[in-house]
Specification:
Two copies of one chain form a homodimer. Chain A has 237 residues and is mostly helical. Chain A is built from seven helices and no strands. In chain A, helix 1 packs antiparallel against helix 4 (120-140), helix 2 packs antiparallel against helix 3 (75-108) and helix 4 packs parallel to helix 6. Chain A binds chain B through residues 1, 65-66, 68-70, 72, 74-75, 78-79, 82, 85-86, 89, 168, 171-176, 178-179, 182, 185, 189, 221, 223-224, 227-228, and chain B through 1, 65-66, 68-70, 72, 74-75, 78-79, 82, 85-86, 89, 168, 171-176, 178-179, 182, 185, 189, 221, 223-224, 227-228.
Chain lengths: 237, 237
């Protein structure tokens, strides 16, 4: 494989991962819309997305493995491919989160509507925003933007904690609303996990981008230094 | 690096992963013991384990990356190292699960003891057993044993679903027990996730072991075939 063909393959891999990210983000948005308007037909769409996401995860994993096996890439390219493998796994779990939320919506079907002390659409939009920003950081190889995702996670965590306290309080004081409160609590927890996956993705972006600078640090082992002298690739800019 | 030194490094990597697995398994057992006897001093041990697990996760990741960068291993060795990277991430999340459970124990400290319709120690022992078996399959490169872990996951899933139904019922009918029931439900969910991680590990073992056979299949691309002719390593036996 020529260097040019190799770089085209890396671009294809990146392209596939972006499709995967789009599917995962859309799945979360659909799941929250299904929750908001209680529409089971949207839940069906989420289930179908999840299957597509699982298929694409395997495809990306295989493409990454093939590149590692055929090309034995060095330094920045190696780190890029490893980051893709990790981000891929996190996106698949974002899809799982969407599926969990839509499963909750199905169980809500026969419950009365309750006014609960929690703003799930807002929490969902924060979590989705983190996924989007982490992927943006990946596209632009921007470690600073990835860093900003890490701080957003605190906001989602504290929303989740607050929701947990207020919904547990509803359960303890208004028994008849316990099923709805429990459902809302589980949805919050799924969203908090989506935010965790966005955080993992951001950390992987930092790991990958920082790899471009690692050879400038004094701590690099002499043995490794040689393999880190590969030219910085196009996709790292 | 000579071939012998390379194999020694692979063994070191495997050894580190087994230490990681031991820590993760111990963390789950301690968290459940803390839950069972409501002992906050055990929760402190779990928190300390979690920090050790996180440190070791980074160390293993770096060692795996160094091996990939320095050795550009092929075929079975490449798949082995990738499996280590993935299993490592799952073990770290098992540690997170233990931490979540011990956080629950802390919130239980001021709650009255309640007799709940759920057997958490049994569910914990099933989930731990899955982690142990998945690691055993890894040590012995035994795809069949890994396959048996996958079927155990169904048992944990159905225990979790049953616990969810019965605990939600407690919440809806005995308001004063809602806090305890909610805590138990969250612990079940954490255990169900531990079982999911054991399942992921088992799948990674299958992926790695099956790699040893991939060249016997007709579907291998001619380009890849060369790189798959590396001798099957000692650690794959």
């Amino acid at each position: 494989m020529t260097r040019i063909r190799f770089h085209r393959s890396l671009d294809d891999l990146k392209e596939k991962l972006l499709v995967m990210a789009g599917l995962a983000e859309q799945a979360i948005q659909r799941a929250i819309e299904a929750y908001r308007v209680r529409d089971l037909s949207i839940c069906d769409l989420v289930s179908r997305s999840e299957m597509a996401i699982n298929r694409l995860e395997r495809e990306i994993d295989q493409a990454a493995l093939d590149l590692l096996a055929m090309e034995q890439p060095m330094a920045i390219d190696l780190r890029f491919i490893l980051a893709v493998i990790k981000i891929n796994a996190d996106l698949e779990r974002v899809g799982d989160g969407a599926k969990s939320i839509s499963d909750r919506v199905r169980t809500m079907d026969n419950m009365a509507i309750a006014d609960l002390p929690v703003d799930i659409p807002r929490m969902a939009s924060l979590a989705s925003n983190m996924v989007r920003k982490a992927l943006q950081a990946f596209i632009e190889a921007d470690a600073e933007m990835a860093q900003s995702v890490l701080s957003l996670d605190d906001a989602v965590d504290s929303m989740n904690r607050a929701a947990h306290v207020s919904l547990a309080n509803v359960m303890a004081t208004q028994c008849h609303l316990a099923p709805q409160a429990l459902n809302a609590l589980m949805v919050c927890r799924s969203l908090e996990r989506v935010a965790d996956h966005a955080t993992n993705i951001a950390e992987d972006v930092i790991f990958w981008v920082k790899g471009a600078d690692v050879r400038h640090k004094g701590s690099v082992d002499a043995d490794v230094a040689g393999s880190l002298e590969a030219p910085v690739s196009r996709h790292a800019n």
